[in-house]
## 1
Amino acid sequence: MDYKRNILITGGAGFIGSHVVRLFVNKYPDYRIVNLDKLTYAGNLKNLTDIEKKPNYSFVKGDICELDDMIALFEQYNIDGVIHLAAESHVDRSIKDPFTFAHTNVMGTLSLLQAAKIKWDGNFNGKRFYHISTDEVYGALQFDGSMFTEVTKYDPHSPYSASKASSDHFVRSYHDTYGLPTVVSNCSNNYGPYQFPEKLIPLFINNIRHGKPLPVYGKGENVRDWLYVEDHARAIDLIFHEGKTGETYNIGGFNEWKNIDLIKVMIKTADKVLGNPEGASDSLITYVTDRAGHDLRYAIDASKLNRELGWKPSLQFEEGIEKTIRWYLDNQEWMDEVTSGEYQRYYENTYSNR
Ligand code: NAD
Ligand code: DAU
């Protein structure tokens, strides 16, 4: 079949990527969706079992850092659009191992840009390179009501955010220097199903389920702006199709929470869903040494995206967090497989024999 578009989604086996792949495969049967993922510890093909047999979906195991492989992939699938999510994404890991973050996030993004530049070769009509980034590139805010806008100066603090900032700059440089039709978005903290349980929300839900300590960094006073992952995927769809070339769009939930307040809501909701008496898990809260360089507050002003493309978050936080908690508690098998490492055998048993 001749597809209307051939879209490469990188990192599609990860948390946000799997929601984006699912949305595109289901919504656009006339697009071929190629999911390229290295299947690191964070990539899990079990996140996509519901769509993996659809005719317009292909999975390719590969590494964005391998330029020759990326060029061959563009050639094989005649790629005309890229939605680039593949990355090392966890701040705590970046503090322990910054080199891996520089390699994947900077060199990997550069390889993809170069592959697009070589294969599209100045013929940019109908092409798009969309880079998914984070609000962490803007640095940290005080408790003064200010927000990050698209013109806030970059000021990354962690090795993770420094690597994402660098990759954003490379994307813009390919637009300004070679005319590559790029677009960038910077999003706040996502939550929802299929997030690897090293991140705050799934880690704490799983620990509550098992009566294990909840390690709160510092005093729990840091603030994050939370967005339900399907709302992020909807924004990505909109920006991919309607965003202006060369532009940046901020995406956020207008939903700031102090960590400790969020944790209390999680405990209350999880205890309710589990049928525990109110307050049963309160004593699990354990204050631990703060994260090095812990950014105090993030807050995204997503009004440009609302004004220009009409996007806004669809889910109220109380609804989203209860839905998320129920999902993790109802999908204990998924959680057990991820925490035991069992999910990593899925590729060998299913895909490599096809
Ligand atoms: P994730 O860690 O859950 O998934 C990352 C995926 O990338 C995994 O499937 C992994 O296997 C793959 N990958 C890693 N290295 C690769 C390589 N060299 N080649 C090919 N694939 C590789 O991450 P996530 O939370 O879904 O984040 C996805 C993107 O969105 C990242 O670019 C991240 O910076 C950005 N982002 C995340 C959030 C958030 O709250 N999670 C917020 C804003 C932006
Ligand atoms: O803001 C967007 C970013 O959000 C993304 O770019 C990153 O990929 C994503 O991982 C996320 O980064 P954070 O560092 O904000 O997320 P994390 O879930 O690791 O932590 C959320 C907050 O909770 C943060 O202030 C640190 C704190 N925390 C985290 C963990 C894992 C704890 O107090 N205890 C914990 O055990």
## 2
Amino acid sequence: MVTVRVPAKVNVQLGVGGLRPDGFHDLANVFFAVALGDLVTARQGEGVTLTCEGPGSDQVPLDDSNLAARAAYALAAHHGIEANVALHIEKAIPVAGGMAGGSADGAAALVACDALWELGTPAEVLHGLAAELGSDVPFALLGGVALGRGRGEILTPLPVEGTFHWVFAVADGGLSTPAVYRECDRLRAEAGTGYTSEELPDPDADPALLAALAAGDPILLADALANDLQAAAVSLRPSLADTLRAGTAAGALAALVSGSGPTTAFLAKDAEAAEGIARALRESGTCRAAHVTYGPVPGAAVRTSA
Ligand code: C5P
């Protein structure tokens, strides 16, 4: 039996560029791994079976469409072996929340099956398999803080100092990532950018953001946080504006939608401030739950093996 712990992510910068012929958008995507994470356990089994527990687990598909199951099949196919594993997911990452929870489970299943089947797959092969599973899966393997180019899968680790403190407010229900990207394109077309969505120039990482991370300075980071999908997520779910306001009023240094949402992220000055922001968010009635966490933390890694 192998248990793997895997982090959720927040995008401290999500710069969305043009729509590509393959249906994805070119990104300048700064991923940040937080301690809020799932546990994925792999045991000997027959075929690939999947079970899941925790908040929102009734929304998690347990068939072969789940990224954890697809990861097991992909790893087995790469090695030319049969995929035999019973996977169990303990969810803490909000489901369909914009924190890459499904992608995290895919990354964790790659690592867990690799250990259970004693394959010793090189990291670059795991990265390639992860990129085929989804744009956010490679980062869940890597963890820390990294710039993602292309559709998010071409990763460069970034230097970061110290620990940043975060609060995440969970909304009722999820948002579809493709729907949020479509809404982003629609809003841009409506506003008129001077480009068609196919012609938009590639976004770049913001030097001020990179400097704030390297300096470990939450006040500078707060000034530089940016998510090009935020307007689209708020357009599809206008109540998110109330949650963002409630966190800011409670003293968050900055508030933003996490990825494609609907989870919202609040940067706090320190751990104590984070507790106060979470309490105020719970009392505000504008979210279902609020979690205090921190980062950066490492990517998917074996926690116990027996
Ligand atoms: O790669 P992943 O399966 O996570 O992507 C889900 C969907 O999000 C894609 O089908 C696409 O609609 C959208 N997406 C995008 N550009 C990206 C990443 C995702 O348009 N860079």
